[in-house]
Amino acid sequence: MTVALAVEQVTKRFGGLVSISDLSIEVSPQEIVSVIGPNGAGKTTLFNIITGVYRPDSGRILVEGNDVTGLAPSTIATKGVARTFQNVRLFHNLTVIDNVMAAMYGRTHAGLVASALGLPRARREEARVREDAKELLSFFGSRLMGYRWEQPAYSLSYANRRRLEIARAMATGATILLLDEPAAGMNPKETHEITEVVARLRGERGHTIVIIEHDMHVVEGVSDRVVALDHGVKIAEGNYAAVATDPHVVESYLGRGTAGTK
Amino acid sequence: MAEESLAIGTDEWVAAHEGRTSGQVQGPVARTFGRLPWWVWGSIAVLVAVVLPLIGSTYLMRVGVNLGLFLMLALGLNLVVGYAGLLDIGYVAFYGLGAYGFAMLASDKFGVHLPTVVAVPVVVAAVSIFGLVLGLAARRLLGDYLAIVTLFFGQMFVEFALSGDAITVPGRAEQVDLTGGTNGITDVDRFSFLGVEFSSDRWYYYLLVVLVVLLALAVRRLDGSRIGRAWKAVGQDPLAAEAMTMPVNRLKIMAFVVGAGIAGLAGTVFAAVQRGVFPSSFDLPLLILLYAAVILGGSGSLKGALIGAALLSLLPEALREPSYSEMVFVLLLVAGLALAVRSWRDRIIVVVATVVFGFVMNLLFTLLHVQGVPASAWTSGPVSTLLGHWLFVPQDRVLWGNLGFVGLVVLLAVLTLVGTRVRPILLPAIVWLSIFVWFVRLADVPSITRQLLIGALLIVLMIVRPQGLFGRRQVEVL
Amino acid sequence: MELFVQQLVNGLTLGGVYALIALGYTLIYGVLQLLNFAHGEVYMVGAFTGFFVMVGLGGPGKPIVPVWLMIVAMFLAAMVVSGLLGVGIERFAYRPLRESTRIAPLISALGVSLFLQNAVLLLFGSRVRSYDTPRYWSGAGPQVAGVQVNPVRILVLVLAIILMVGLTRLVEKTAFGRGMRAVAYDRDAAVMMGIDVNKVIVLVFFVASALAGAAGVMVGLVFFNVNNYMGFLAGLKGFTAAVVGGIGSIPGAMLGGLLIGLIESFTTAYVSANFASVLSFLVLILVMLLKPRGLLGTRAIVKV
C-alpha cells in the first residue's frame, strides 16, 4: 500500500462559483504535505470535502485504497481521517480530558444500556480510555497535564486550545491528520513548538499529515512536499524550495506583473 | 523555565476567572452542597423520602406522588435538552401518550385489562417508537426548527386527545371514540404486580421513590460514560462532534427516544395513580413548568434538575394556603432585598423608608376617600396580622390590585433602566407596592400568580444567571 | 360553487391575518435570529386594545363617532399599543441576552409569553369578550362570481394587502429598510458601517408588533371573540406560515400565510374542522423535510 490518501479529480461548485476544480492529490503513508495558497484558494474546502462535510460534485476520495466519497463525516473519521479546524472548534464546556475522551467514541463500544447500568465491561473500557487520554495529552509535554485535565476547555489559552484540538484529532485513532492552520495566531515561540509537534506526530506516532498553513517558516520546516492552490486549481507541486520560487505561486500571492520584477 | 510558568500563569488566571465572578450568589449555595460528597446528600434525601409516609397525611402523599412524577419528567427532559442540546418543546406529549396508552390498555374503555407487567412495557416501547419516528423526521433540523416541529407535535397531541372522541373512519357509519375527548378516559386500572394491587397513593409513592432513585443513578452513570460525553459534545458543537467520529444523528435520536421512554413510563404511573387521563393535564403550562425546573436547577446538571424540579413542584403547594403563601412571599421578598442591598446601613434605610412610605400611602388613600377594608376582614395568617395596622386594603381589591400590578411592573422595568444612584429611592416604593399587590390581589388568585411568577422567573433567570443554580457556566464560541 | 367562493374569500382573509403575524416572526428572526414566542401574545394584546377602544367609543350598541372613524381608531390604537409592547419586550427580555447563549432568549421568550397571558387574565379576567361587529356594521357586501360576500372580510383582506405592500416598500425603499437588511445580513459589519443597530432592532420590533396588533383587530372584527388564550394558537399558525414560506423571507411569510389560511378554510369546509390544524402540521413537516429552509428561503452553506 503506497497511497494513504488520494484525492482524485475532485470538483466542487457553490452556485456558479467553482471552489475546487479537477483537483488530484496523493499522499503517501507518513508523508507531510503542506497545502498553501492565498485566501479563497479552496484549501479549507478541500479539507471539508476529504472529511465528508461537503460532497464533491465529481471525483473520488480514497483512504488507504477504500472509496469514502459520500460517507458521513463520522464514518470517514472512524476510517482514519481526523482534522482540526481553522477557527478552533473544541467542545468548550467539556473538560480537557473529556474533549479527548469524547473523540474516542468511534473506537469504543459501550452502548446506552451498558453505560447507564455501569456494567463492568463499560467501566473497564472507561478506565482504559481515560488512561489512553492521559497518555495522549502527555504528548504535549506539561502543557495539558495535571490540574488542566479537569478544567473546561474554554479556560485554556489560545495556543493550548490549538494543542488540545490536535490531541482530540489524535484520539480518534486516525492515522491521517488534516491540520487547518495550526500555527495561526501564535507567537514565534509557540509557532516553533507547533513545528516540532508536527514533526513528532510523524516521527513518534507515525501519522500521515496534510497541513494548511500560511506561515512559510512552518511550511518550510515540516513539509516533505508542498501543493499550491489558487482558485481551486493546483498551480504548483514539489519540494518547498521549488514551490516557493515558482512564478505562478509568486504571482498568485503578489498579483500579476510583480513576478517578473522580483 | 520562567516563560513556562508565565504561560501557566495566564491559563490559571483565565481558569480562576469563573471562580472570581461566581462568588456572589452561587457561592454559599455551592459551598454548602459541595462540602459533602454526592452520595451523602442522596442518602439523606432517600431516607427522608422513605420515612415521610410514616408521619405524612394523605395530602402529603399526593404531593409526594406529584413530586415524584415531576422529578422523573425533569430527569428525562434534562437528558434531551441539557445534555444533547435538543430543544424538544413537545416533550409533554410523550408523557400524555404514556398515560393515554396505559389508559387504553387497562380500563373499561375498550374492555381491555392487560396486566401491569405487560401493559407498562408495551406502552413504554410504543412511546419510544413515537419518539423514534419524530426524531427521524426531525433529525436534520437545526435547533430552532426542531423546536417548531416538536411544539407542533405537542399541540397535535392535545388536539388529538380533545377531538379524538369522534373520528370518522371511512367505511363505517358511526364515529369512533378513541380518547374520550374532554372527558378523557376514566376508571383506569390500578397497578398490580404479582397479585398485589397498588391500592393507595402510598404504594405509588414508594414506586416513584424507587423509579426516581434508579433513574438518577442511571443518569449519574451516563454522565461520565461514552454515550453521555458524546451527547454533551453533540449538544455543544454537532459539526465538530461529527468530525470526531460521533454519529450525530444517531446520538440525537437516541437521546430523543430515551427522553420519550422516560416520559412515557412516568405517564403510565400518572394514569394509574389518577385512575383517569384528561387532555388538559398535558398542555403547555406543564411543559413550561418543566423547562423552568430544568433551567432553574441548571440544565445539564443532575443535581440541578432534581432540586429545580422539587422547588417548582412544591411552589403551587406553598401558594395554595393563603397563610403559607404570605409567609413564603415575605421570606422571598426579604431574601431578595438582602441580596439586592449590600450594606446593613442601606438595608435599614430601605426598611424604614418602606414603613414610612406605607403610612404616607394610607394617608393618601384616606384623603382620596377610598373605601378601605378593616384589617380583621383580610388578614389570614401571622404575617398579615402583623401588617394589618400598616397596610391599607381598599374595598375594590380587583381594581386597586390591578392598578398596583401595572404600576409594579412599570416600576420594576424602570428600576433596570436607571443608574445605581436612583435605585435606592425607588426601592421602598417597589417593596411597598409588591406587598400591596400581593395581599390585595395576587394571594387571592394562586393559579394565575403561579404562572406569572414562573414567567417572570424564566426571564429574570436568563438575564441574571442563565446557567441556573447548579449549572456550570456555559460559553458559546462561534 | 357558492361554498367554494365563500371558502376562497374566507381562506384569503384568514391567510392575510396569518401572513401579518408571520411577517412579524420573519422580520424579528431576520435581524436577531430569534424565534419570538411572545409574538402571539402581542397579537392578543392588539385584539384587546381594539376591543377597549370600541367600548370607549360607545360600544357596539351606539358608537359616539362614525363607524369608519371608530374602526380606524381601533386599528391605530391596537397598532401603537402592540408596537410599544413589542419594543418593551425587546428592551427588557431580549436585549440583555443578545450576547448570551442561543437558547437563553428562547426561554426568555417562553417566559414573556406566559407572563403576558396571565397578566391579561389577571387584569381582565377569563370572560370571552365580543367585538359584536354585526351590531354596528352590516352593509351588503360586494358580489364575487355571483356570491354575496361579507363586507368585513373584504375590508380585512384589503387592509392586509395595504399593510403588506406598505411593509415591502418600507423594507425596499427607505433608509430604515436598508439598515434592516444590513443588520440581518451581518450585524457586526453593520455596526462598523455606522448603522445604529439598536435603533434598527427597536424599529423592527415596533413594525412587527404593530402588524400583529392590526391582525388582532382584524380577527376581532371577523370572528368577534377575544380572550387571553387566543394568542397561542394564532401565534402557532403564523409561525407555521413563516416557516413554510421560509423564515427570514418577507415574500415567503406572505405566501406561507395565504397557504395556511387557504388550507385551513378548505379543510374545515370540505373535510372536518378537527383536521384543519393537523393538515397544516403535515404541510409543515413535509416542507421541512423537502425544503428545510422553507419555500422561498435561501439555502445556507455550512461554514466550517
TrEMBL record, chain A:
SUPFAM superfamilies from the UniProt entry: P-loop containing nucleoside triphosphate hydrolases
ABC transporter domain sequence ranges: 5-256
UniProt keyword list: ATP-binding, Nucleotide-binding, Transport
Keyword Nucleotide-binding: yes
GO molecular function per UniProt: ATP binding
InterPro entries membership: AAA+_ATPase, ABC_AA/LPS_Transport, ABC_transporter-like_ATP-bd, BCA_ABC_TP_C, P-loop_NTPase
One of the Pfam families matching this protein, by short name: BCA_ABC_TP_C
Record bears the keyword Transport: yes
PANTHER family: AMINO ACID ABC TRANSPORTER ATP-BINDING PROTEIN, CONSERVED COMPONENT OF ABC TRANSPORTER FOR NATURAL AMINO ACIDS-RELATED
Protein name as catalogued: ABC transporter ATP-binding protein
Automatic annotation (TrEMBL), chain B:
Any Pfam family the entry gives: BPD_transp_2
UniProt topology in membrane: Multi-pass membrane protein
Classification via CDD domains: TM_PBP1_LivM_like
Major localization class: membrane
Location relative to the cell: Cell membrane
Keyword Cell membrane: yes
InterPro entries referenced in this protein's UniProt entry, alphabetically: ABC_transp_permease, LivM-like
Keyword Ribonucleoprotein on entry: no
UniProt keyword terms in alphabetical order: Cell membrane, Membrane, Transmembrane, Transmembrane helix
Transmembrane segments: 38-60, 67-94, 114-138, 145-162, 203-222, 253-274, 324-342, 348-368, 399-418, 425-442, 448-464
Name of the protein in question: Branched-chain amino acid ABC transporter permease
Organism for this UniProt entry: Terrabacter tumescens
Lineage, broadest ranks: Bacteria, Bacillati, Actinomycetota, Actinomycetes, Micrococcales
TrEMBL record, chain C:
Source lineage: Bacteria, Bacillati, Actinomycetota, Actinomycetes, Micrococcales
UniProt entry tagged with the keyword Membrane: yes
InterPro entries: ABC_BtuC-like (IPR037294), ABC_transp_permease (IPR001851), BCAA_transport_permease (IPR052157)
Organism, scientific name: Terrabacter tumescens
UniProt KW keywords: Amino-acid transport, Cell inner membrane, Cell membrane, Membrane, Transmembrane, Transmembrane helix, Transport
Family annotation (Pfam families): BPD_transp_2
Listed transmembrane segments: 12-35, 42-61, 67-89, 101-124, 152-171, 200-226, 238-262, 269-290
UniProt protein name: Branched-chain amino acid ABC transporter permease
UniProt record similarity statement: Belongs to the binding-protein-dependent transport system permease family. LivHM subfamily.
Cell inner membrane listed as a keyword: yes
Domain of life per record: Bacteria
Membrane topology recorded in Swiss-Prot or TrEMBL: Multi-pass membrane protein
Protein's cellular compartments: Cell membrane
